[in-house]
Amino acid sequence: MTKRFVFVAATLAMVELWCGSALAQAVYPAKGQSPQQQQQDMAECNGWAMQQTGGPGAAPPPPGPTGQGVRGAARGAAVGAAAGAIGGDAGKGAAAGATAGAMVGGVRRRQDRRAAEAASAQSSAAYSNATAACLEGRGYTVK
Question: How many angstroms separate the CA atoms of 69 and 17, rounded?
Fold first, then answer.
């Protein structure tokens, strides 16, 4: 019994390392499956879940620097310079416009990053659910 527990724990640890935290579930053989059978079933269910969902975190990673702040600053400076020229000081208008444009670009970048993180979390949950469904269909209890 102790050897079986150690084998199952080691198998789960390997799956956890391979899949990341998406499969942070405990899998118990409910129909007397051997450790070897459990390992085979877990590998097959992992493959099936990968095909169904694209894998844990299959959504694209959060975007890195995109230049949105720079583009926003340039647009803001152009608009600010035009407005400032009407008021008599194009330089001050350009500076104010550049600051506002950079802030808008930063907000957009944060919104894009949050959306990508949410999509990744949703993908990980779908993968985890698919893996659990497969294992439960093969007679395992997944918690």
Answer: 37
Tens-place pLDDT, residues 1-20: 555 544 544 554 445 544 44
CA distance 96 to 44: 59
pLDDT digits (tens, 9 = 90+) for 117-127: 888 888 889 99
Length in residues, the chain: 143
The amino acid that residue 24 corresponds to is A
Pair 11, 42: CB distance under 8 Å: yes
- In the chain, what are the domain boundaries? 1-143
**Residue 86 CB contacts under 8 Å (≥ 6 apart), including other chains:** none
The 10 Å CB-count burial string (b at 16+, else e) for 15-44 is: beeebeebbebebebeeebebeebbebbee
- Taking alpha carbons only, the member of 29, 62, 52 closest to residue 125 is 52
